[in-house]
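Reply to dn_fold:

You asked what the input looked like. This is it:
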Amino acid sequence: MPPVTSTRASTGVRTGLGIPGYAHPLVAPTEWAGLTRPGTPLHWVVLNVSGGGPGSRPDPHCLEAAGRLRNAGVRVLGHLDARYGSRAFGEVISDAHRYTDWYRVDGFLLDHCPTERTELPAVRRTATTLRALRADAHIVLNHGTHPHPGFAEQADQLVTFSGAWSDYRWSQVAEWTADHPPERFCHFVHGVPRGHLDEALRIARWQGAATIWFTDRTDFGGRTDPWEAMPGYWDDIVSRVGTGVSE
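and this is what came back:
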């Protein structure tokens, strides 16, 4: 792992929200409807239809949700699970084809992406094939931590932090990230108290991550998915990010 430093200054960053994937639109209709509200500072939304993939057939509710987002000018990404490199290449690409054919996604989030240098050729092969499906596909690699710097050349964005606020507030950033603009990095943080939103935004901006998702939901020790529901302070975070508070 490359050396780390506590912070690095980032100025002129246009921070926006990246939604890791809400629950199914039937389960979370309010969440999905809120995403198309005018002025919401969204960079992209991940569509996770069934258990980490596109499902076995087109889902009419997800088709409708994805269509509303695209009509509102929001980029929709299909969720692909890499299982830290253990999943077969053909399975991942098969899921990608279904997302493209059924939901007309604008790109993909490759979840549980490996971080080691030895996995670079496999991830490069996957990213190249995904771009062959759609030339302008937006590719996000969700490592959840800082990977080998070579991964930055394989995708449009890397998720270099995904975890709890208790860890994020003391987190550090890898020095090699300073060679890339903030638009290349994303942070997902759960368990952020309302009173610490400004502090969390300052951390993201100082560490150089332009795409963020903060929520007060928690994973209860890994027993639940903290990303499935809208934060209790949705209006607050939209206001802060949309107006550039704490930059």
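The two ends are 29 Å apart (CA to CA).
Hope that clears it up.
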